[in-house]
Amino acid sequence: MVYCPSCGERNREGSRFCRNCGTLLEEKPLKSRFMSGDFRESPVKRELQRKEFSDARKEGFEWDTALRGALVLVILMVILGRIFGFMGAIAALMVSVIYVLSSSRRKSQSLMIVFAALLMAAAASALFSI
């Protein structure tokens, strides 16, 4: 078996191109490349990939934070609302807002994320009749 250097797909012996990604397969088998040390990626390439991934995470809207904030709000509202009534719902709202504000990576979008979390929580509450 010959393994693709780009995606790691197993290919048949003698294949010139990877059947998964189309990358030209090297003539040198994987075992000999591993033994000689040619298999390792350069630290520069790895650092560039890590930087591209972190830049991509920073650019978009933080839907994951808004969704987690809405989930915290709905769960706490159900629990605290049943125990303490209206004051429990207010406490759940405060905890959710504090959670979203503290966990957002880009502070410039914090208010939009809080608004999105409240909107998601309201939609979930209406959908499930909580």
Automatic annotation (TrEMBL):
Query: Which domain of life does the UniProt lineage start with?
Result: Archaea
InterPro entries named in the record = Zinc_ribbon_dom
- Per the database record, which ranges form the Zinc-ribbon domain? 3-23
Q: Which keywords does this Swiss-Prot/TrEMBL entry list?
A: Membrane, Transmembrane, Transmembrane helix
- Where are the bilayer-spanning segments? 70-99, 111-128
A Pfam family annotated for this chain is Zn_Ribbon_1
Report the protein name in the record.
Zinc-ribbon domain-containing protein
Q: Which organism is it from?
A: Methanothermobacter marburgensis (strain ATCC BAA-927 / DSM 2133 / JCM 14651 / NBRC 100331 / OCM 82 / Marburg) (Methanobacterium thermoautotrophicum)
